[in-house]
Amino acid sequence: MNDTDIKEIWEKALVYIRKNINSKVSYNIHISPTEAVSCDDEYFIISVPFTINRNIITFRFQNLIETALEMVTGKKLILDIIVKEEEEMFKKTFPENNDEFLKEEKKMSDLSNSIKYEMSPKYTFDNFIVGSSNEFASAAAKTVSESPGHIYNPLFIYGNSGLGKTHLLHAIANKTKELHPEMNIIYITGEKFTSEFIKSIRTNKMQEFTENYRTPDVLLVDDVQFIESKEATQEEFFHTFNELFMNNRQIVLTSDRKPSDLTTLTDRLRTRFSQGLIIDISIPTYETRVAILQNKALEYGVNVSDDVLDYIADNVRSNVRELEGVLKSVISKSQFKEIPLTVDFVKETIGTITVTDKVKVTPQKIIEKTAFYYNITENDIMGKIKTKDIAVPRQVAMYLCRRMLGMSDTSIGKEFGKDRSTVSSNIDRIEQALKNGSSVESEINYIIKDIGSR
Questions:
Q1: Which 8-state DSSP code applies to residue 116?
Q2: Do residues 254 and 158 touch, judged by C-beta distance below 8 A?
Q3: Beta strand 43-48 with 155-158: parallel, antiparallel or unpaired?
Q4: What's the pLDDT at 142?
Q5: Helix or strand or coil: residue 303?
Q6: What distance in Å separates the CA atoms of residue 135 and residue 142, rounded to the nearest whole number?
Q7: Residue 421 burial class via C-beta count within 10 angstroms: exposed 0-12, middle 13-18, buried 19 and up
Q8: Which residues of 280-291 are buried (b: 16+ CB within 10 A; e: fewer)?
């Protein structure tokens, strides 16, 4: 595509953006100075004068711009932004008239059987922050990418939304592609697998569908719980799973629940999902949340004080996605309003953002629900009695404070009147019991559901 065509696309997109943007000031300051640089089948690249322009556009207007580009071109293009001084480097990297270059790149991509569908190169193991809530899942994912089909097959990762399951799937794909470029890798969501299956029936292309999904070296399925209650889709996925597994092809699945809790899934699929390694990802601890925020601030190129990061980490506990969203929001608003990013500013801003789940979970609520389940008093849990009927509920309550709230051992100790080493020891006992298949797992699951109810 020549420069004239690229500029024409951008000018038409700007008309749509100008009509639909809420702030005309933001348009004049951040979007008006942009210039179209390049376009291919996947990316539309623009340049901006300063880093702050890039940050504001990324934080606030990327979805709007990508919608405008889709309306103009009829394609779902990903917006990429480079700062003006980087443009010369870009032009040196790519030929001025890069139509033939892009065609050649596409040919090479097709020939290499690279990753299919909606994979993102920005999600890697290098930028996945590891903590106690996800270290086992991260280690298993790395092992799978190094030796697909031979260890941990299938790998089943489960946990609530926004905790990093999708990031790990992308990281597996990107690392596997790096180490094994000859491999055919498919990433797909359970919802898209279902819709493609239905479409193949409607268009009489079942053979094509079957050949596509039963031949990859690595199949990554995100949110596999979506195929629950869909009998025909489950039947097809069962045969797909068997074909890949019998040929030592790697299968990685993510879900919001472990296999045994997918109650409307067929027994034979539950059995197959359970025959490999099953790992959960829980809410990140306070320390991990701070590390995630530090990493994101560096990625955004913004200097954020430790006090601000600590405040956000202490008040946004539900999941990683929400944590990053709040950081983006406060940075964007402080830059737009030209107000220093202080703790007081964040307090005021967070007040307008939903940072907790519908049901407020607190250490007190965890203690209350745990005591109720085990038919003891809250004073028993907080006390010093060490008999098993009291000690186990106390250990469970401490474990849930870490798992559900991401509290540090020191913070839990302050709540329970215990020292840090005692808390660590108690939580270790529960984690070991869970690894050994103890009945305490079903007890914990019941308490979690009770805590989540009103």
A1: B
A2: yes
A3: unpaired
A4: 93
A5: coil
A6: 11
A7: exposed
A8: bbbbbbbebbbb
Record the tokens describing residue 301, joined without a space.
């190129």
Residue 425 exposed, middle or buried by CB count within 10 Å (0-12, 13-18, 19+) = middle
Average pLDDT of the chain, as a whole number = 82
**pLDDT at residue 356, rounded to an integer:** 42
Local confidence band at 341 (pLDDT 50, 70, 90 cut-offs)? confident
Residues 171, 168: Cα–Cα separation, whole Å: 5
Q: Three-state DSSP class for 314?
A: helix
Q: Which residues contact 376 (CB under 8 A, 6 or more apart)?
A: 389, 390, 393
Find the angle CA(279)-CA(190)-CA(249) to the nearest 5 degrees: 65
Residue 429's alpha-carbon distances to 35, 374, 414, 436, in angstroms, are 59, 18, 20, 11
Residue with tokens 């480079």: 82
Partners of 82 in beta bridges: 47
Integer angstrom CA distances of residue 24 from 69, 140, 330, 335:
19, 48, 20, 16
b/e code 103-136 from CB counts within 10 Å (16+ = b): eeeeeeeeeebebeeebeeebbbeebbbbbbbeb
Before 154, cis peptide (omega within 30)? yes
Instruction: State the number of CA atoms in the 13 A half-sphere of 2 facing the CB.
Output: 1
Residues contacting residue 420 through CB under 8 Å, at least 6 positions apart: 409, 410, 413
3-state SS record for 347-395? HHHHCCCCCCCCCCCCHHHHHHHHHHHHCCCHHHHHCCCCCHHHHHHHH
Amino acid at 363: P
Q: Which residue has the tokens 């942009």?
A: 34
Distance (Å, whole) CA 251 – CA 270: 14
Which one-letter amino acid corresponds to residue 35?
E
- End-to-end CA distance of the chain: give it in Å, rounded: 57
Average pLDDT of the segment spanning 160-179: 89
Q: What distance in Å separates the CA atoms of residue 74 and residue 136, rounded to the nearest whole number?
A: 42
pLDDT digits (tens, 9 = 90+) for 230-264: 888 899 999 999 999 999 999 999 998 888 888 77
How far apart CA 410 and CA 424 sit, in angstroms, is 9
More confident residue, 29 or 136: 136
